Amino acid sequence: MLRAGENVGGFLKYSHHTNNSENIRTASVYGRTPGSAVDVLAFVTDRDSGDLRKPDGDPFRFSSSDMLSGLFKVNARIATDQRLTLSAMRGRSTGWHPFAALGEDVAAPTAADITRYGYDEAWRRKVLFRDQDDDTYSIKWRYAPAGNPLVNLTASYAYSKTTQHDVRTATASSGFLGTLGSESWVGYRDQLAEVRNESVFKWGPVEHLLTLGGQYHRNDRDTLMHYKASVRDATYNYGYFQPYYMPEGGQRTTSAYAQDAMTIRDVTLTVASRFDRVDTEGQPNIASRYASALPKAGHDYSGVTYTGWSPRVGMFWKATPQMALFNDISRTWRAPLIDETYTVQGCATAASCSSVPGTSRDLGRERVNAVRGGAIFTTQGILGSDDSAVVRLTAFHHNVTDAINLRRGILYDGYVRGGDNVSPPGLSNYRNLSGYRTRGIELESFYDSRRFFASLSASMQRGHRRGSQNDPWGPDEVVSTQAADKLIVSAGVKIPEAGLAIGWRGKFVARQDRVLPPGNFYRLPPSAGYGLHSLFMTWRVDQGPLDGLEARLTI
Questions:
Q1: According to the model, what pLDDT value does residue 103 have?
Q2: Residue 166, CB-side half-sphere exposure with 13 Å CA sphere
Q3: Would you call 99 exposed, middle or buried from its count of C-beta atoms within 10 A (0-12, 13-18, 19+)?
Q4: N or C: which end of the chain has fewer CB within 10 A?
């Protein structure tokens, strides 16, 4: 970031967006000691905005933001072959928001609510005020002795903490049991440690890049909410308890991995494997209806452990100076999350138990077999001696088995809603389904020259589930979260003498009608296709009294 021969620098940046009256202010200062033994960077950004306006002019309510973030980072070269890096980041955001950002407008208040509470308060009764803080601290040490290609050692440790406080307006109803109640407090803490070494050596005609490493990741979560409707109910701990869908708990992942990238002439074969051990433990809910001792409830918050290997094989072949082919095959897995393991439903008495009240400690690992392949084309001198182009084509196929999913609809084979059959006691809230397959293709291409530039990218995805999320024994159905087909095109001209670049960008998204039928618990509604056109201009000054100034305009 520093210019040649300079030891101190900085920049100021201001942006304004007219749609939502957003202002973004950024300032940074950085410097280094003579000889670059130590360098320091400080960075701060403040962002505030009003609600977005939709194309019809109506506001997208509660899309405003008020955020402040900062970064401080130090690099110290403590020896000729060692470097120590320290960093600290902090961010805070506040504002009125929906419980979950699902891309939908908040339901409008009724005319009666507006009359009773006033226009602004009637809207605020639909949402909550969220105050969120994020802190991250990290340290990294690198040791790379000159003349020893077998040692390139990196050790790092990072700690992050996120706290979130949500509170609803005093006039809000006493409900919202399923959306964090009238007030809630959530805290996440993550610790991540890693040691990794890279060795470069040659064995016969084969060049090796061998990577060995280990990781430890600990995640802990604290939750609490206030539910005003239950302040007199002892089974709800008089209104203060953990949300049944956001239980407290912790998860520890201990991992070791090895990867060898073997190159002979124009072919690189990469073989890798990773071992993970995941230990998950829940904390019993302080509300007795969600931590019941009744056998019918199945509320078991004790720990569970998962272990497994994740192998991968990949190949990269530089077939010609202009074309390279690549492909890889991997088999990996994930352990159930804290939510998936310890989410429960209420069971205050044996007669009032939910049909699926239990924790889900008997879940299997979710697995995925992934295959990817493609080609990269690079060329120069297409229309002149100063231009270049890159085209990348990628195809992929994912086969997910034992997919972890909520237990809804047909609870077990032979179950009939409203029938005489009775669900087994303590039926778990989550289960493993057969899984699904997704496949797709992605195209990326870029052209650049001294005077012109252009790009084109496209993506398509299809997916089908074996059975149904509601009924694993039913007919196959589409994957409800598959992305719509998308095409992005841009083109422009550069005027180097004036420091100008002017261009157009078009984003075209097809309609998404590959959705589940109406009435399905997991249905996402179909969406119409759309096109978004942008005109942009960049002006940069590289000499004179305004040297370093850059201005951008986008419509």
A1: 57
A2: 22
A3: middle
A4: C
The owner of tokens 């086969």 is 399
User: DSSP label at 19?
Assistant: T
For residues 96 and 126, give the distance between their C-alpha atoms in angstroms, rounded to a whole number: 10
Q: What does residue 72 show for φ and ψ, rounded to 5 degrees?
A: -130, 130
> How many whole angstroms separate alpha carbon 270 and alpha carbon 275?
17
C-alpha 347: how far from chain center: 34
As a three-state string, the secondary structure of 85-122 is EEEEEEEEEEEEECCCCCCCCCCCCCHHHHHHHCHHHH
Cβ(63)–Cβ(51) under 8 Å? yes
Query: Measuring CA to CA, which residue among 201, 5, 14, 167 is closest to residue 97?
Result: 167
Distance of CA 36 to the CA centre of its chain: 36
CA dihedral 424, 239, 117, 19 (to 10 degrees): -70
pLDDT, position 519: 83
Segments in the chain below pLDDT 70: 101-105
**Which residue is associated with the tokens 């998404």?**
512
Helix H or strand E encompassing 25:
strand 22-32
Using CA of residue 242, residue 68, residue 138, residue 140, what is the dihedral sign?
A: positive
Burial 370-389 (b: 16+ CB within 10 A, else e): bebbbbbeeeeeeeeeebeb
Tokens 């669900």 belong to 423
Strand bridging mode 430-448 / 8-17: unpaired
Q: With H, G, I as helix, E, B as strand and everything else as coil, classify residue 321.
A: coil
Tell me, what's the pLDDT at 104? 59
pLDDT tens per residue across span 354-373: 999 999 999 999 999 999 99
Amino acid at 474: G
Distance CA 79, CA 62 (A): 52
387/303 Cα distance (integer angstroms): 60
> What residue has token string 């072949």?
317
Per-residue model confidence as pLDDT tens digits over 493-504 = 999 999 999 999
Spatial distance between the Cα atoms of 365 and 367, rounded to a whole number of angstroms: 6
Residue type for position 494: K
* pLDDT tens per residue across span 82-130: 999 999 999 999 999 988 866 556 788 999 999 999 999 999 999 999 9
* SS3 category, 342: helix
